[in-house]
């Protein structure tokens, strides 16, 4: 799972086989300061490039931006359950 390191504001580098991870797929598309939150690499050269790019990363800035982005999705489960309950209530009424 990529969510554990992301919730701790740790940059993530992963291999190309992420199709079974909705979070990895989603956050590999999200850009912050010209950098993907989850970097997907397929070979050792790309991995070394990703590691090298992390050297220039300002961790404090990354952490602030990432936490702000994750906050937008806070309580998503509660929102979904409320929506389902509202839909069920409408069908019952």
SSE layout and pairings?
Blueprint: H1 3-7, E1 12-14, H2 22-27, E2 31-32, E3 35-36, E4 38-40, H3 44-55, H4 59-71, H5 76-92
Parallel strand pairs: 1-4
Antiparallel strand pairs: 2-3
Tell me the structural class.
mainly alpha
Give the oligomeric state of the chains in this entry, treating copies of one chain as homo and distinct chains as hetero: single chain
Shape type: elongated
What's the total helix number?
A: 5
Which blocks of ≥5 consecutive residues have pLDDT under 50?
A: none
Average pLDDT: 85
Largest sheet: 2 strands, parallel
- Beta strands, count: 4
Order of adjacent strands in the largest pleated sheet: 1-4
Q: Could you tell me the radius of gyration in angstroms?
A: 17 Å
Protein model, in words:
It is a single chain. With 93 residues, this protein is mainly alpha-helical. Helices cover 57% and strands 11% of the residues. The protein is built from five helices and four strands. The chain has helices at residues 3-7, 22-27, 44-55, 59-71, 76-92; strands at residues 12-14, 31-32, 35-36, 38-40. The strands form two sheets. The chain has a two-stranded parallel sheet. Strands 2-3 form a two-stranded antiparallel sheet. Strand 2 and strand 3 (35-36) form a beta hairpin. It is elongated, with a radius of gyration of 17 Å.
């Amino acid at each position: 799972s990529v969510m554990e390191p992301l919730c701790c504001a740790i940059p993530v580098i992963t291999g190309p086989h992420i199709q079974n991870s909705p979070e990895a797929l989603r956050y590999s598309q999200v850009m912050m300061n010209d950098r993907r939150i989850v970097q997907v690499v397929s070979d050792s050269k790309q991995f070394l490039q990703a590691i090298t790019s992390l050297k220039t990363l300002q961790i404090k800035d990354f952490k602030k931006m990432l936490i702000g982005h994750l906050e937008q999705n806070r309580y998503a489960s509660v929102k979904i359950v409320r929506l389902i309950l509202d839909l069920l209530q409408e069908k019952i009424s």
